[in-house]
Structure formats: structure tokens, C-alpha cells
Amino acid sequence: MRFPPGFLWGAATAAYQIEGAVSDDGRGPSIWDTFTRGGQSGDPACDHYHRYLTDVELIDSLGLRAYRFSTAWPRIMPDGRTVSSRGLAFYDRLVDALLERDITPVITLYHWDLPQALQDEGGWCNRDIASHFASYARVVHDRLGDRVKQWTTLNEPFCSAFLGYGTGVHAPGIQDEGKALVAAHHHLLAHGRACEVLGTASIALNFSPVLTDFRDAAHRESARRFDGLHNRFFLDPLLGQGYPPDVLADVAHLGALEPAIRDGDLETIAQPLSWLGVNYYAPTRTAPLDDLTARGNCPLPGLRGMDVLPPRGPLTTMGWEQRPASLTDLLLWLGSRCSVPLVVVENGAAFVDVVEPDGRVRDGERVRYLDSHLRAVHAAIVSGADVRGYFAWSLLDNFEWALGYTQRFGLVHVDFVTQQRIVKDSGRFFASVVARNGLTD
Length: 441
Ligand code: FCB
Fold this sequence. Notes:
With 441 residues, the chain is of the alpha/beta class.
């Protein structure tokens, strides 16, 4: 089972989840520093800020020719506005170290670490954020654009807006469904403004394909609503189709979104994409309200009363359902809607990992997860989806946001006390797939 020639193989990380060094070289506080105060935080995480050379060597040793990482806005502009040359210099060093080893840097400009100073002015609810983000994009592009050709504006605006401003489980911890929708619109606007600066860029969206009893009209309606707000709401405006009318109707009672959309916004959002970044972890099962097995904890603004069913096993330690077939379905669905190539920029799983006395981490469940999901990607390609690459989440075990250090997603095990790195069996497995550019039938 070979992948197409030139298929981009890599691993992904995010600045706040691995860098640590939250006060080094003038870095300013981000909303995640504030949100995690007093609990587990991104300090020291993997201490990558000081150990980046070791980590670049690890990437090289796995044979990966691409590395997706994010730049930290509060390191580059500590107050969200003023440029820090020491902060920029870190990414200069990192990019050069990657290029010396022939590893393509794939930069995400925003993976959730908003400078606190901008949050103090309303953060993503303040429309000015789009201009601030475009200025930040210009600064990073001016400095690294001679060497970096792959740019991603935002990672998962769904999480940043809906979990940050709606359910409040992520920074900045606001619980306001109307604000969540406004924040989502401003994310897309910021993406568009940054694309104008970057030339062509991509965006990484997290999709959750919906499963339900499609024979029943009430079930189909629950699927439509969830899919609408989780998937189509972010995708359609990027593709130049505007917000889906059915979704606008679903959230109209909140009265927040439509006043935030100004003339010209939809044109700004619909920039040509270099490719669409696809983050996939798990499907969602939906049901109508009267389903007695439902949990009723839908995280989507305006749809709180809608029911989400418990996932079916086997689960990862995140409680996420393992269903590779949904990845094939997703890639084919996206392929039928978008004219741009697709790149899976996040896929992976957390399990309980044990370092055995011989120093190995035999993470067979993760090997099986990767194997089955890579087969799912391959199946989509065979059926015609234009998928150009796959990035495992994640290179390293790291700080998993609201869940702290309890969830290990890495191909490489990290001891957060000693900072020792050990390549897990899954890392070796992934390296062997990459080396062959394929799997055995
Ligand atoms: C995604 C995030 C990433 C990581 C994985 C597990 O939603 O983009 O940072 O936390 O989930």
C-alpha cells in the first residue's frame, strides 16, 4: 500500500504545549498562562525552547521530512503589538536547524496562545483582533518567509472560539454562547486578513464526522445540526460559500452572529488556500433530545440542548472513539467539496504508556491506531481524494491543555521530570512506514 510520490510525512506540535520557558527572553503572558495559573501549565512542558536541537535530531532520526510547529505570538510580540527580536530569533534558529537536516518547516501562526494583553481588550470578541493578527503574520513572514514556504494561519478555530468562549473549558474560560460565535467569525476574518499578507496559506480545521441512525428523520435532523455547526460552519465560508443558511437559522435565537458580520467580511474570509489542513481524532454520535441514552452535553453554541451519545469502544484515554472509517469518509467528503489538496495535519491517540525496565515503551495500541488510520487515509486516496500528506499528533508527549500532563499523544515519550526522550514503538512503526512510503497489505 504505497502513498503517492512526494507524500509529506511529518509530526506536529504546538508552542504552548512543548516550549516551556514562559518568561525567557522577554516572552509575555498568554491566555493559557493566565488560565492555568495555580495548576499544571505549559511550564516547563518539554522544555523544547532549550532542547530544540535534540528534538530536531529526533525528527531527523525518525526520517520525517516535515515538521509542523506553531510560533508563539506572546514570544514574538509580548504585548501583542511590539516586536521582540529575541523571541523571533528562537524561530530563526529552529527553522535553520530544520533546514540543515532537510526537514520542511510547516508553521502554524496561532495555536491558541493569545497574548494576554490582547485578551484584556476583548481577545477574539474584539474585531480589531483581525488587524493585530495580520500585523503579527507580517512580522513572522518578513523574518522567516525567505526560508519557510508552508504557512498555516490558525489551528482549530472551533476549539479556540467554542471551547474558549462558549463552554469555557479552554482559555480564556469565558462561557457565553453568543460571544463564542462572534469569536469564531473573528477567527475566520483574521485568517483572511493574514492570507492577504502571506500570499497563499492553509488553515487547520478539526472535523468530527457525525454518526446517527440515518433511517430516522429526528436522528437525521440531530446530525444536520451538529455537522452544521461543527464542520460546515467553518468550512463553507473558507470555500467562498458563506455561512450555511441552516446553521445561521439554528443560532439566530442568540442574536449575536449576524450583527458581527459586516459587508466584505465573507470576501475577506474566502481566500485561496494552498491546502486544507485536516485534524481528525474521532466521530460524534448524535441523537434527538428524547433519546434516553444520550448525555445531553453538546458543546456547540446554541445547540446545548442537543444530545450527543456516548462514544463506542474501544476508546482512547481521552475517551474518544477509535473509528478509522470516519477518516476515510471525511477525506472523501472534503474531496468532493473542495478543489484544494488536503493534508492531514493532526491525527493520533492518547493511551497509558509504560517505560519498561529495558527502557522501551511498547505502545501497541498506538501502533494499531496509527496503522488503521494510515490505511484509512490510503483508502481515501485510492478512492480519489487528493491527500498530500499526513502529520502524526504528536512528536512528543506534551501539555494537553485542560487535561495537563495526563494525556500522552507522543511518538516519543517524555519524562517531564528529567526531560529524557524515548522513541516509543509507535515512533519506530511510523518511521518504518515513512521509510517505505507505505504499509504492507
Ligand atoms: C487538538 C489540538 C492539539 C492537541 C490534540 C490532542 O484539538 O489541536 O493541540 O491538543 O487535539
